[in-house]
Amino acid sequence: MGPAPTGQQLRGATGGPEVIEPSFEGTGKKGKKPSSRKRGVTESQAENLLQPVKLSKAELYKEPTNEELNRLRETEILFHSSLLRLQVEELLKEVRLSEKKKDRIDAFLLEVNHRIKRVPSTPESELTDQAWLPAGIRVPFHQVPYTVKGSFHFLPPAQVTVVGSYLLGTCIRPDITVDMALTMPREILQDKDLLNQRYFRKRALYLAHLAHHLAQDPLFGSVRFSYTNGCHMKPSLLLRPHGKDERLVTVRLHPCPPSDFFRPCRLLPTKNNVRSAWYRGQSPPEDGKPDPPTPHYNTWVLQDTALGSHVQLLSNVLGSAPGLKDGVALLKVWLRQRELDKGLGGFSGFLISMLVAFLVSTRKIHTTMSGYQVLRSVLQFLATTDLTVNGISLCLSSDPSLPALADFHQAFPVVFLDPSGRLNLCADVTASTYHQVQHEARLSMTLLDSKTDDGFQLLLMTPKPMIRAFDHVLHLRPLSRLQAACHQLKLWPELQDNGGDYISASLGPLTTLLEKGLGSRLQLLAHSRPPVPEWDINQDPPKHKDSGTLTLGLLLQPEGLTTVLELGPEADQPEAVEFRQFWGSRSELRRFQDGAIREAVVWEAASLCQKRLIPHKVVTHLLALHADIPDNCVHYVGGFLDALLQGLKETSSTGEEALAVAICYYDDLSRMLWGLEGLPLTVSAVQGAHPVLRYTEVFPPTPVQPACSFYEQLRERASLLPRLDKPCPAYVEPISMVCHLEGSGQWPQEAEAIRRVRAAFQLRLAELLRQQHGLLCRATATHTDVLKDGFVFRIRVAYQREPQILKEVRSPQGMISLRDTPESLRLERDTRHLPLLTSALHGLQQQHPAFSGVARLAKRWVRAQLLGEGFSDESLDLVAAALFLHPEPFTPPSSPQVGFLRFLSLVSTFDWKNNPLIVNLNNELTAEEQVEIRSSFLAARTRLPVMVIITPQDRKSSVWTQDGPSAQILQQLVILAAKALPVLEKQLMDPWGPGDIRTVFRPPLDMYDVLIHLYARHIPRHRQAVDSPAASFCRGLLNKPGPSSLMPVLGYDPPQLYLAQLRAAFGDLALFFYDQHGGEVIGVLWKPTSFQPQPFKASSTKGHMVVSQSGELVLLPNIEAILEDFAVMGEGLVQAVEARSERWTV
Amino acid sequence: MVARRRKRVAGDLEAGVPSPPGYYAIPIKFSAKQRASHYLYVREHRVREGTQSAWPQKRTLFVLNVPPYCNEECLTRLLSPCGTVQSVELQEKPDLAESAKEPKSKFFHPTPIPGFQVAYVVFQKPSGVSAALTLKGPLLVSTESHPVKSGIHKWISDYADSVTDPEALRVEVDTFMEAYDQKIAAEEEKAKEEEGVPDEEGWVKVTRRGRRPVLPRTEAASLRVLEKEKRKRARKELLNFYAWQHRETKMEHLAQLRKKFEEDKQRIELMRAQRKFRPY
Hints:
The structure holds two protein chains of two kinds. By secondary structure, chain A is α+β, with helices and mostly antiparallel strands.
């Protein structure tokens, strides 16, 4: 039996995670050996690799037909590009309802209609006397207060009509719902039903009776209650067909009054229809103060009366225009991806259809427009119009009896009137929801206008869940706390208006409060809308406090985050009182440098990470002060991942400051180099070439002060050496930098000689730095190490022409041509690309302070998954940079948390096979160049590495991913990221705390064949481990820094040395995985191909033995000896070699 | 299962270690503590008639599968019981020519980390080879008397070795550069002598250094010339002047659109296959 299938069986048997399966399934396809690769590529090409298109000349240049020309012209005019057109068509196909299903739904609707008409009527009884209701049915309404006048009896509806998107043909899959309006007969309703929720209670009783009868019908699979648009006064009945069609459709029944039953003038936003005397149970106030208006209550009644007329309007507008219907469907998808359409006050599909109708009426949209154009126009309109200030109206009449727009603005935050001029369609939409819509529309417009990206994918196919879209998120729980907040904020009229829904009542004031408090720190504040509940008909409707938590998302302004000061007015100004009131005890009088004495609030924050969390302090302070919400009811999610970036001793900083200190010393040193006297050539440029110098080193370096007794001393070379009897000394990685010299014709033109001259420069540099600045230096042939204030820098002298000289090849004719050699490529990468990248990313950090945190978290995670060796430092930095430079459809992250989530989502969803990741550093690539890069990428795909990252400096070859990852490692990372993302998001969105945030950072170990356990004694970075050990070994450092006369031990990391040896010896047989940040275990995975018995060949005996197998002599890896070699080669470091699987048994 | 396998190996040992035709297998272990062993596959070094080989015939032993912890010195010690060893050369893969013509500077060419290697062992007498071919194992790389460093010991000593002596480096650089300068000076001298002097067929060599320097003979230079020519020609051409040119441009545009359309269709096909159109 071959080894590979054995392995699979064993894996299946042990029940290991499915995670690893595909990664090594892929082995056969992509192949490690060159021979199998060729086959693999052709195979996978057939599956899912784009190929350059080949059309024959005849096909390309044949006469065009009229039809073709028309289509091409249409594409040009109506769509952005032909690709977009095809994509839109495909998407619509996917979300549209098929004709076949429509027929089935129609049949079902007909049945429903019949059944409803047959529901028997009941005798008349008082509204409060609900004894006639059969047991097992609960009224879907919070009847508070219970007593109300009026009587009710059931009669079958006068009219049953289908309303809404199904009729218009704009409904989208999944979750098809059909809205049915049941017009209640006049006889049920009474004159004064408008008052004190009487109408709504009758409506609820009507539904309850209906539900009881329909529930007994075998036609329906489920009969449940829900709320219309999440409004708790208006229950609706959900009917789903029985059997296999259950998921097909949901029919929602909405009872409504005859359209002319209520007098419209009673329902203006300024009128009151819920009497305080009744609602609060008090006698009418003596002072004759009028009852407060109830605009929302009135709107909900009006909505019911206008169902028919709205449908009429929409079918008139959309009816004969397929383009508009497409547009509405696209907009619905757009809203849904942004979680904007659901719940009370959501921007529903109905609203967007009405908006399209409005734009048609104002001639901004024409009925011949395509879906894409409709989408664009609506987004453009939303982006540029602020409905919170300038409301719009569909009403054409100039009847003076109609209320003015200003009246509506008084009562509602967002105003969009229907054709009657009395109903505000956006009554429940809060200002923050509308601002969020506007913000999204603005982002989408810029995306559509830029021609570079795949707008379609980002606009319509990328979900934007709150946790991934907002920098910080906070949960308010339990929701019952908001009831107290309503009292504290004196929101009784709003409560009366909302029928006791304290969440909607308090939402507006709370968001305004926080927006004011966060001020310049905030870009956008959004809130979640409580999900629309559904419940069984024999249950009470869910209480307000049961609707989960209220989640607020904060989009932060990076510029505002840098300040700790909230500057108020001058002390003698009248606004000062208001300021003091707003900030309470936090506000204090301060004298400023310009002599002004002002009110001010100062937050204590020393480091960037603390400054980032100032919003947390602001929110808890304000909520406690103004809304009586104590801080244990606020769960703020913003800094949980910071712990993974914090060093052992410091918990107040995530390391940006420490990196800045190192960079500061680097700047000092480069100034010294520039001013150095006595070098044969002067220094022309000094460039950084190390992650520290671009803020992406996971653990920033600290100044070292070695304790000499801990080391062997090599006095004559001023160096310390590690000692055998002590634990491994602290790991000091030199910070590398490149030093360019002025041009000169004196350099030799031969590679070997150049090396010698460079070495001479290194020696001279060391000598001069020692003489002129008293620095401790150590020169080798390739670099000079300099100890400066506890940091070690490694200076490399570079000669610009050296890569070119290494490339020169002389043909037999004497022609000199340039050919890349591995050595020249390496040199070019280290002395040209790396410094450029380092300075570009350093610049990026200045623009986006969160970059450092994101890049380091990302690297930390990849390394913690033991995959760090497969990915170069720079490639991961570039992926992190892409999140900032190409954040679409989001905005650039302002906190490490959200950046890391987007990193995971980018890694797990990016199609590396068919796309290069273009990282447009400094915005140097134009749109045309990017298009060109994409097309040349396709042509050269097979020659490029698995993961291709393009930067303006490196447009073709993707230098940073040339040496890896391999297809398997990348695939493994993709799988791990796809698994980690939902886990982490769920943890962070859990309102009761994230639990163990390190869960996703712990690697799965059960996939490895052999585990090599190491002694912590010889792991210098042991304390950096994800689960930091409580105790580790002394690493020979003194606590107090001081001058040192000996060079510390540099870059001595036994696990890395061990790994290098293992890879050199057994690289053909196995893969080795290790977390360089304090990993205690090395994972070994045998390559499945290496266990194929091979015929004897002199060149492939490495580590193999000859075995006679069925009479033939074949080569097989000598596993037992190799396992013992693992222990021999790591003597002193290796604790145990644990062979876990028996995949290798032959 | 490990145990079972071990038993089988033990069984093999009794029957004699299997070795490929022409080779003889010698078990080798790091020290007496190890239980399983690697196998050196050895044979006399022979080459086909007429092939040049740097290794002396008859006296050279060709060794395959030398473990990474076994260096030249070690191999010498292990094989010296068979006869006096003249030299040992370890290489990454079998190679007929003796590779290191001149000793490379340790400052500029650090030795790579060894994997499994092959070795050419030259004995003083041919008898050494034949004795080696009957050698009974297992050979022990590290013994009480001659311990071989591995693990932490090795890394610490490697680290100590890597701390270079700047003086030695300076001396090495100076000597090399002196020799290099002399070499260059001699070459220039020679070039100067030859300048303008026709060779026996009457050709005069034209160099960069002459009175009228010529274009360097590089690929880049010749490409540049070609490019310039092309641009010159393109400038003279008239675009969209004749009706047929006009027609052709239009057709060309259409063809471009068609090609783009085809590409897009392929893309869509792929996305559909990957179910990229499920929005949620």
